[in-house]
Amino acid sequence: MGAVRCYNRIRFLKIRLLGIKLMEKLSVTIITRNEEKNIGRCLESVKWADEIVVLDTNSTDCTVEICRQFTDRVFSVDWHGYGKQKNLCADRASHNWILNIDSDEEISSEGAEEIQALLSGGPRHPVYQLPRKNFFARRWVRYGGWYPDRISRLYDKTQVRFTESQVHEKLVPDGNVGSMKNPILHYSFSGMEDYIDRQNRYSTLYAREKVSQGFRADWSHLLLRPPAAFFKNYLFRQGFRDGFLGLFLALAFAFYTFLKYAKTKSV
Asked: What is the DSSP code (8-state) at residue 38?
């Protein structure tokens, strides 16, 4: 990262001498809760940014203490759902351009250089997608829809915000989106038990939100959508090429699809 900083200092001086528009400043936003296993790696990968803002939700481990080693912009609020939480974090950022990453994600040195180059050249879009490399117990999952898994995370907060969903939030408006080359590294699940626990939790959040909107699943959701999800991920998206892991993930996602609809009939 020292080479990146040196390069940017030289570039900054050249820009000032030539009278060219200065690089847009960047705030990195992260929401946390009990992420002491991951947050240090995440913060280390973005310490080149102009600012890091962390919004914590009542962590009982060392998450907050670790965050304060990298930034003094650490805040604590109660939980409001993933989408609103990310917007609250962005509202506390000093700069308009935001890079939102999760605690279990990491920006590579190549990704950092690409982001800085984009911001120094004047972004042409209000929001940018980045590919994401998802790891399952340290194994990169290449198929089944897990890669390139493009996700919008770099954006101008004066033009774009997250939907205030309980789960599966996204940036809107989602038109006029730029694309970047270097992926976010996502160390998503430590193993099968972790994956199953989180899918159970996410399906509950999904069901509660849908029921609050007046939705209830019918039998077509319960009987047709789970097998459709399996065949889509295992066959059409070639999850079978990841071997047993691909089979497990396709079956588990089909069960998650069943759970999220089944829970709308019980929550």
From this structure: T
pLDDT in tens, 231-245: 999 999 999 999 999
Q: Which residues contact 188 (CB under 8 A, 6 or more apart)?
A: 104, 134, 135, 136
Q: 108 exposed, middle or buried (CB, 10 Å; 0-12, 13-18, 19+)?
A: middle
At 166-225, the pLDDT tens digits run: 888 999 998 899 999 999 999 989 999 999 999 999 999 999 999 999 999 999 999 999
3-class secondary structure, 26? strand
List 30's β-bridge partners, or say none.
54
| Token pair in block for residue 148 | 């390139």
pLDDT of 19 strictly over 50? no
- The two three-digit tokens of residue 181, written as one number: 């080359």
8 Å CB contact between 24 and 97: yes
Strand ranges in the chain using DSSP code E only, listed in sequence order: 26-32, 51-56, 74-76, 97-100, 105-107, 127-130, 132-136, 139-140, 151-156, 161-162, 171-172, 177-179, 184-189
Q: Which fold has domain 22-189?
A: Spore Coat Polysaccharide Biosynthesis Protein SpsA; Chain A (3.90.550)
pTM of the prediction? 0.86
At 217 the three-state DSSP class reads coil
Q: What pLDDT is recorded for position 10?
A: 52
- Can you tell me which residue has the tokens 């992420």? 35
Q: What is the pLDDT of residues 152-163, one digit of tens each?
A: 999 999 999 999
Sequence ranges of the domains in the chain: 22-189, 192-265
Q: Is 32 exposed, middle or buried (0-12, 13-18, 19+ CB in 10 A)?
A: buried
Instruction: Kindly list the distances between the CA atom of residue 29 and the CA atoms of 13, 49, 54, 95, in Å, as whole numbers in the listed order.
Output: 27, 10, 6, 11
